[in-house]
Design a protein that fits this description.
This protein is mainly α. It is 78% helix and 0% strand. The protein has 2 domains: 99 residues, Four Helix Bundle (Hemerythrin (Met), subunit A) (Up-down Bundle); 51 residues. Helix 1 packs antiparallel against helix 2 and helix 2 runs antiparallel to helix 3.
Length: 158
């Protein structure tokens, strides 16, 4: 159980470090987020320091764990603020948001109503073809019946 939590912590800190690097690369685009960035850097260093103490001192493990969990909570909040700032600054549809670990808004497929209309139209066309085929079949039946009567009448006349 502890190993899974440690892996999750490592994954989170890795993502947060990646976000900081992306923020540094895009400092010109997002100049007004230095406060949130500083908070994230401070909290990440606190997390890593607490994790180091947790690993080094078995006696202080509980206190270090509590500090680490509190710092992780504050760091997650800072990550959300940075991602929100990037989304606000770049716009919700910008594909560059992916580098900030944010999914951009993308165009969706056709609505259910549009698909329903299309299927109803296709059904109406098939029903019209089927009705036409039924008319043709009825005409053929009548012709066959007429021919049978003529053949029967010709045999009676022989």
């Amino acid at each position: 159980m502890g190993n899974e939590r440690s892996q999750a912590l490592g994954a989170f800190t890795g993502k947060a470090r990646r976000l900081l690097v992306t923020m540094a690369e895009n400092a010109a685009t997002l100049p007004d987020i230095s406060v949130e960035r500083a908070i994230l850097e401070r909290e990440l260093s606190t997390v890593e320091e607490a994790k180091n103490r947790q690993d080094a001192f078995a006696g202080e493990k509980q206190r270090a764990t509590q500090e680490m969990n509190n710092a992780v909570g504050r760091a997650r909040e800072a990550v959300l603020q940075l991602q929100s700032a990037a989304k606000f600054k770049l716009g919700p549809h910008n594909e560059k948001l992916v580098s900030f670990l944010v999914k951009p808004l993308r165009k969706r497929g056709p609505s259910k109503a549009a698909r329903l209309r299309k299927q109803e139209q296709a059904l109406a066309e098939k029903e019209a073809k089927l009705a036409e085929q039924r008319k043709d079949a009825d005409l053929l039946r009548r012709e066959v019946e007429i021919l049978k009567r003529e053949v029967a009448a010709a045999e009676l006349n022989k």
